[in-house]
Amino acid sequence: MKLSIAWRLGLIILFSAISVVALLEPMTLGLDLQGGMHLIMEVESEKAVENTVDRAILEIKASLEKDKVVVSSIERRQYAIVLVTPATSEDGVKKVLKEYPNFSMTKEGENTILSLRESERKQILELSTSQALETIRNRIDQFGVTEPLIQKQGDNQIVVQLPGVKDPKRAIELIGRTALLEFKLVDEESPIVRLLPPIIQADAEENTLKNFSGQVPQDREILFERIVDKETGEVTKKPYLLFKQALLRGDVVSDARVQIGDFNEPSVSLTFDSVGAKVFEKVTGENLEKRLAIVLDHTVYSTPTIQSKISGGRAQITGSFTSSEASDLSIALRAGALPAPVHILQNVTVGPSLGQDSIEKGIKTSIVGLMLVVIYMIFYYRLCGLLANMMLCLNLFYLMGALAILNATLTLPGIAAIVLTVGMAVDTNVLIYERVRNEIKKGRPIRLAIDAGYEKAFSSIFDSHITTLITAIALFLFGTGPIKGFAVSLSLGVIINLFTALVGTKVVFDIINRNWRLERLSI
């Protein structure tokens, strides 16, 4: 059904008003226009498998102790768990190991071998990157970056784009931090404790570990606390002998907030979920007068002495960190630990000056292209060319309004798509006007020539726009960030161009023909 002139004018006015309202808010600029960071990160997925096996070892140890089943030793052999099992304990071990269907059990002499099933290993590898992506997304959302791009690339890579980030170093530290929080008991009775130096230089950790290699019991480990002298800023390390088994982990933390103490020192207050609160109460009740180390990413933050059973599900991390470090730590703990470490393959920082230069060049290119088109259309099609130029400006106005409504991020590829849209709009008008010219040459009246020109050009215009739209959709579905931006701008440009060319210019011709009987047309 053909819409009346009033309806078509109403649509043009309505879309213009919507575009005005949408453009009252400034558009979001992409990384290439406002500066920021572009990271390609790789997830060490194999480490996630090792972590799974390590957690299983701790759980099996606890189950064996609970059932009073004796084994000589338990250790990890890549993706397998080796238990040296006395004959008298075999039945008890088999009973405990039935609770671990993801492992296959075999015998090797007096050793019981639990091997992680291949299907389970593959699933962990696949999930580790997806889990890392969601964890990084949560951290960035809380960090406060506008319109970040975070997406998976390949099997174990993650692409992160952070427009407008002014402190790249802090952002990288937050994104890449594993944030593995553990509560471990401090061993203060082993003979080796008396041999540990009270303080070492910050770069002497490796030497200290080498000096005590072979002396540390199998179920213990040496970790270090970072100490910063407030007056000189000098960093030293304090070694601790800890039990390897974590009594509590960060996966039971439901909230983490920064608190400022009496001496204006920041700390991080933790709130446990219902399970964590019960475990924490049990741990503190069973280990009175012992020191409990709070360990984050294998670094000791504090070692408070347990004075009494702590109920209520709350704890506190104190340490030598600044307010921003405490804030980032709380963000990392709230967002959860990464399932495996990540390392940066590519780090490109785009400065604001480069982004501003890109904006200026993009604007200049668009203006030059637009002016050349405007001059050509007026020179070749005269008054009809002027009408086409007016609709071209309306086209760009609608396009910018649509991008603003969708909260789309404007990038250099997006500007390129806008310039391409200008070219397509010109092609559309050229097709229509050439058809109208041909009809006038055949001797048809102006009104009939205009109607016939639009009718005959419609199929060609529609087909070309649909094929372009299909291509744009394919680019959006299978492309990465910049390509998606190009595809969005191009898709909107194609749809809007159909409206302004087939409805916008036609309604002007219809109004003129209804009010004046044209004998000649300036085309």
Overview of this structure, please?
The protein is an alpha+beta fold and 523 residues long. The chain has three domains: 5-33 and 353-515, Multidrug efflux transporter AcrB transmembrane fold (Up-down Bundle); 47-117, 2-Layer Sandwich (Hypothetical Protein, Haloacid Dehalogenase-like Hydrolase, Chain: A, domain 2), CATH 3.30.1240; 177-245 and 272-348, Gyrase A, domain 2 (2-Layer Sandwich), CATH 3.30.1360. It has 13 helices and 20 strands. The two termini are 29 Å apart. The mean pLDDT is 83.
Notable traits:
523 residues; alpha+beta; Multidrug efflux transporter AcrB transmembrane fold; Hypothetical Protein, Haloacid Dehalogenase-like Hydrolase, Chain: A, domain 2; Gyrase A, domain 2; 4-stranded antiparallel β-sheet; 13 helices; 21% strand
Proportion of residues in β-strands: 15-25%
**What's the domain count?**
3
Q: Examine the secondary-structure arrangement and name the CATH architecture of the largest domain.
A: Up-down Bundle
Structural class: alpha+beta
Approximately how much helix is present in the residues? Answer: 40-55%
CATH superfamily of the largest domain: Multidrug efflux transporter AcrB transmembrane domain
Rg for CA atoms: 34 Å
SS field, number of helical segments:
13
CATH fold category name of the largest domain: Multidrug efflux transporter AcrB transmembrane fold
Tally of DSSP β-strands: 20
Low-confidence stretches: none
Between the first and last Cα atoms, what is the distance in angstroms? 29 Å
- The spatial strand order of the largest sheet comes to 10-12-11-17-16-9-13
Main pleated-sheet profile: 7 strands, mixed
